[in-house]
Hints:
Elements: H1 3-11, H2 22-33, E1 38-41, E2 47-51, E3 60-65, E4 87-90, E5 93-96, H3 103-116, E6 125-130, H4 138-141, E7 152-156, E8 163-167, E9 170-179, E10 182-184, E11 188-195, E12 200-201, H5 213-224, E13 230-237, E14 243-244, E15 248-254, H6 258-275, E16 284-290, E17 295-297, H7 299-311, E18 315-320, E19 325-337, E20 341-350, H8 353-369, E21 373-380, H9 390-403, E22 408-411, H10 418-424, E23 429-433, E24 437-438, E25 446-448, H11 449-464
Parallel strand pairs: 3-6, 3-7, 7-23, 8-22
Antiparallel strand pairs: 1-2, 2-6, 4-5, 5-25, 9-20, 9-21, 10-17, 11-15, 11-16, 12-14, 13-15, 18-19, 19-20, 24-25
Amino acid sequence: MNKAxxxxxxxxxxxxxxxNESNVVKYINNLLTKNGVKTFIDKKGNLYxxxxxxxxxxxxxxxxxxDMVGVKTDNSSHxxxxxxxxxxxxxxxxxxxxxxxxxxxxxxxxxxxAILLDxxxxxxxxxxxxxxxxxxxxxxxxxxxxxxKSKHLINIDTENDKEIIIGSASTASYEITCPVVKxxxxxxxxxxxxxxxxxxHSGASIHHTISNVIVDVxxxxxxxxxxxxxxxxxxxxxxxxxxxxxxxxxxFSTKENINEFKKSFTNLFQEYKNTYAIYEKNLDFxxxxxxxxxxxxxxxxxxxxxxxxxxxxxxxxxxxxDLKLTLSSSxxxxxxxxxxxxxxxxxxxxxxAFSDKLLQNRIESVVRLANASVKQAMYxxxxxxxxxxxxxxxxxxxxxxxxxxxxxxNAIHAGLEFGIISTKYPGLSYASxxxxxxxxxxxxxxxxxxxxxxxxxxxxxxxxxxx
Length: 467
């Protein structure tokens, strides 16, 4: 096992979902300092590291985020606050038992650690480990200026070893609050569970024909509301705003004949499954009687919530067929019921400033029409794809000449931290690479071991040829 993979396994023992990174930052800091690498931790928790800073060689900056998305199967008892990730190796790939793996971005962190602690590598390497990338990018936003001398950044946070990414999309998250009026409930209560969706990254997978169960199940219920009288009790789905949700739980009350209701739901559900049959193979549902709940939404609130969910723009809005790149999209990632409101989290991405404003207006307009409220919880800029990119060209050349591996230089419909970091360091040349990872942000996340080793060796060789 190479050193980078050893570090990945060690990182996997430390809980590190977004907002809970202090222990993993402490581990990285202790490991580096006891091996003579200079470090600094800012007030936000970002860690800065310097290998051979007094060297006459030109410095190169490596960057990755230490946090991960925590998603688990419905029947998993895993506690992301204290349990280690259980890694499973099979057929040259590693995954996790019933949870996300954390290769996004544990792979990048492990590779940087191996580079910094490689005593045989004579190079001037600066490194940045950021926090809270997956939820708010507040770590990248808090990065301090004037801490690095390098003019060239390699971000290790992509999922295809045949690509070098030199441009990323902006990202804006919106928190929508839809007030509801509750009324005394005298009807029988039921719990609807829809599960088995594929899920996926809300940027990288948004162009695929996969279901957003929040939107699609709400549409089924809105259709049934034309025939049956029922009131919502609660609606909850999604675990991360940057992931397409794969399951939903809806509690409702009704005096209708539940067998007739189930029959109608089954017919609509089959139409729903047929729509996504190419990608979705495991969609299923259950409806079960539950103990009566004293209050439910009134009829008007039930109608408003379902209409609002169906009206908020979800999916791809612009696509460039020449670049084979999604240019603009929006995803409803989370919906949850609180005491007197339903809260929805929406993540929008764009390649252009005008598209940012267009999506914002589309989201805010429909929310206002529903007499609900919305706030922009987070925004960070995209990074323009600069074609004359020195660091990308060097990586591509090293991959081709040293490893006989062809890499294309592209842009991506997802947010990468170099978009923010480059605003702190004007003139920074940036590129992002990473090993083959599939199913990121889902329980199907996998990382290819051969690819992981290649990316580690590629970065090491690029640094050796950097000057």
